[in-house]
Amino acid sequence: MKAYDVKKGNVVEHNGTVYQVRDIERSSPQGRGGNVRFRFTMYSVPGGNKTDASFDGDDELKEVELLRRQASYSYRDGEAFVFMDDEDYTPYTLDADVVGESAGYITDGLTGCYVQVIDELPVAVQLPQTVALEVVETPPELKGGTATKRPKPARLSTGIEIQVPEYIVNGERVLVNTTSGEFSGRAD
């Protein structure tokens, strides 16, 4: 496929490594006869190592077939995470280094995940946009404070720490954005 046909989310092979394109910058030349250049921000699959690469619009890139299978988190096997396919119950085992920082958002029975599969091997997991997690430790609200919204730190049941509004208390379930790691509202 040509570089100008590549869209966000496509999986391509570059220098012998498989990458998923996350961001595309298009730069048009100012003078006549110049070629349009594309700058891709790509992450290796598996591994998630970031790389930037520039291509002319006519550069040829090999597209890699990537299957996305809807799955649910099943259990943890040592350091590995096991997801179960929602349709045919195929187990997909992903190492902790493949899951990476997403591990902090995975809870028992988490649904709405997508396991990315290349050549019948699970290579990455895509979590739902938001997940509900329980606040296990956060300081109490300051009474008589200012009328402004001040965030405070909160440790969640999976061990990650995020900033939450002052009115959130221990034991409350909150929605967390899995992309930005930010508070998205109350869960219940």
Automatic annotation (TrEMBL):
<dbReference type="InterPro" id="IPR011897">
    <property type="entry name" value="Transl_elong_p-like_YeiP"/>
</dbReference>
<dbReference type="Pfam" id="PF08207">
    <property type="entry name" value="EFP_N"/>
</dbReference>
<dbReference type="InterPro" id="IPR013185">
    <property type="entry name" value="Transl_elong_KOW-like"/>
</dbReference>
<dbReference type="InterPro" id="IPR014722">
    <property type="entry name" value="Rib_uL2_dom2"/>
</dbReference>
<dbReference type="InterPro" id="IPR008991">
    <property type="entry name" value="Translation_prot_SH3-like_sf"/>
</dbReference>
<dbReference type="InterPro" id="IPR015365">
    <property type="entry name" value="Elong-fact-P_C"/>
</dbReference>
<dbReference type="InterPro" id="IPR012340">
    <property type="entry name" value="NA-bd_OB-fold"/>
</dbReference>
<comment type="similarity">
    <text>Belongs to the elongation factor P family.</text>
</comment>
<dbReference type="Pfam" id="PF01132">
    <property type="entry name" value="EFP"/>
</dbReference>
<dbReference type="InterPro" id="IPR001059">
    <property type="entry name" value="Transl_elong_P/YeiP_cen"/>
</dbReference>
<protein>
    <recommendedName>
        <fullName>Elongation factor P-like protein</fullName>
    </recommendedName>
</protein>
<dbReference type="Pfam" id="PF09285">
    <property type="entry name" value="Elong-fact-P_C"/>
</dbReference>
<feature type="domain" description="Translation elongation factor P/YeiP central">
    <location>
        <begin position="68"/>
        <end position="123"/>
    </location>
</feature>
<feature type="domain" description="Elongation factor P C-terminal">
    <location>
        <begin position="131"/>
        <end position="186"/>
    </location>
</feature>
<dbReference type="InterPro" id="IPR020599">
    <property type="entry name" value="Transl_elong_fac_P/YeiP"/>
</dbReference>
<dbReference type="InterPro" id="IPR013852">
    <property type="entry name" value="Transl_elong_P/YeiP_CS"/>
</dbReference>
